[in-house]
Write a structure and sequence with these properties.
7-stranded antiparallel sheet; nicotinate phosphoribosyltransferase; 485 residues; globular; alpha/beta; 6-stranded parallel sheet; TIM Barrel
Length: 485
Amino acid sequence: MDRNLTLLTDLYQLTMMNGYLKQGREKEVAVFDLFFRQNGMITYSLAAGLEQAMDYIRNLSFGKEEIAYLESLGLFDDTFIECLKHFRFSGDIYAVPEGTVVFPGEPIFSVRAPIIEAQLIETALLNIINHQTLIASKAAKVCYAAKNDSVMEFGLRRAQGPDAGIYGARAAVIGGCSSTSNVLAGKMFDIPVAGTHAHSWVMNFPDEYTAFMNYAMAYPDNILLLVDTYDTLKSGVPNAIKCFDEAVKMGYTPKGIRLDSGDLAYLSKKARKMLDDAGYPYAKICASGDLDENSIASLKNQGAAIDLWGVGTKLITSADMPALGGVYKLAAMIDNGKEIPKIKLSDNFAKITNPGIKNVYRIYDEETGEARADLIYLESEGEYDESRPLTITHPTERWKQTTYYHYKLRKLLVPIMKGGNMVYKMPKLTQIKEYAAKEVASLSDEHKRLDSPHLFKVDLSDALYELKNTMIEEIRNGGKNREVH
């Protein structure tokens, strides 16, 4: 949407920027990694939001209104205000392509830029990428549960505000949804839109049959009727069949019915038999009503006769995990071409960061193409040789090792921007969706199952592990972060 989002940041980003400027350090180059931490509910995620994140970065500019507001705060001197008037992002960005399967702890977006530029963009990047990645990941699990059935995103009215509804719909399509009820999202992102009528339509006519017939005549090529306003089996389905009979006489082909409440397994099976017996085996049954991956999987296991799924609240809000928990941490500084790795310590080992400039290799089985593990490594290690056996080691329990002999490697982080200029062509949403489907397909069913999934290996290279441990010991012993040449 056409808005200036430059002030979409936390105040402390601006105060730190001003502080660096006062110290004459504004041109020092910093490396920040964006990643998300382990959560008990995360098995795998789909990276999303890159296009909007890069739109934000490319359009960073403090206009007259933004400058006037910052001056009104009384926090910043003229030197800083003057600096902001000429602000543009001039750094490098590396990221995983949208739709890439990603896991906790590994960098999915890396910024290499003058410190004041890298600092400013932290909050907005986390806002954009956390949200879309969260919803794309939820959608992927919903669509996995639905197997080959179409899933329609129906969540706009329950989303936490317009932006969450709009960009949540986009992310849901990346995760596998076939369409959205959100007309604005359909227009903005060229997403197919879907929808028929509400209960209020039925209630506004003298009887259910009259309501159905009026809708059928208004949209004869899209006759899909909501049948649970009064009594699904005694009234709704019989009246829908009666309406279908009249439509067929006029040369139209009914699409089907929608169930929005009640015991969907029982009702769908009964409705299926009624439709089949009436000569409408081709009529689809759509279900909606507080669905998620778990309820869909349960309905599938019960043999529910449902062909299409409309999923709203629990998808657009990611109800069982409402926040991804992504963070943006300093990994290194670059001084005259020398890398100075940085690390954040914590009493909680999971919150100790991985230092240095890094990338991630995904390891694939050479014969099957199945993804086997990810390896976070230091760029200073150079290219790995696929002709040699590769042994990877658990990031903390170093006695756990796996060796691969016939494998292929793929770097996950790719260049997106160099020197403030885009070097990556953003794919269309349909292409991202297709890529994401292939990414999910590359995982084994054991990694994708909804109940107690097998955890995907994400290991640290030996060099990264040694650097991390050495830095921990040095800092604990009063030393400083060190240079890497």
